[in-house]
Amino acid sequence: MNNQRGMSLVELLAVIAILFIISGIIYGVFFTFNNNYDRISHKSSMDQSANLVLGTIKQYHQTNDSYWIKYDQSGKKAYIGQETANHLLGDSLYEMEIKVGYPTTTAISNLKIDSQQPLSVQLTLTDQKGQKYEVETTVKRY
């Protein structure tokens, strides 16, 4: 009579191989989920920053008869102000490219905006990884 207690080496290796394959699949799914979460989080942050810039421009457009927008090409930053453009638009996390004009957008360095006319704005934000977020809109006074 043969009394079998425990597992053979082949059975043990088969179980270890199956567990290794399952853990590899789970790790791959988790890693992909983590990368997608980071990408979506960055996009959401860029969206919030763009909304802040456009909201500031809209506020100036609706509350002032005229104002200034200045774009610093070397620093990739934009400024806004009533008498002079000295308030930073947005934050310093992203490089910014902004084009404004009526009715079509053009690259600017320092431009006085008349609030009585609709203003076309084209905004591009770029993060450190090179991801871009672009938005184009028209701001007008009601």
Summarize the structure.
This is Type II secretion system protein. With about 140 residues, the chain is of the alpha+beta class. It has one helix at about 10-65, and strands at about 65-70, 75-80, 85-90, 95-100, 105, 110-115, 120-125, 130-140.
Shape: rod-shaped
Q: What order do the SSEs take from the amino end to the carboxyl end, as H and E?
A: HEEEEEEEE
Count all strands and give the number. Answer: 8
User: Structural class, please?
Assistant: alpha+beta
Individual helix count: 1
Q: What order do the strands of the largest sheet run in, or round the barrel if closed?
A: 3-2-1-6
Task: Give the terminus-to-terminus CA distance.
Answer: 97 Å
| C-alpha Rg (nearest Å) | 28 Å
Considering DSSP H and I runs of 4 or more, what fraction of the residues is helical? 25-40%
Main sheet?
4 strands, antiparallel
Q: What is the mean predicted local confidence, pLDDT?
A: 89
- Contiguous runs where pLDDT drops below 50 for at least 5 residues: none
Q: What amount of the residues lies in strands?
A: 25-35%
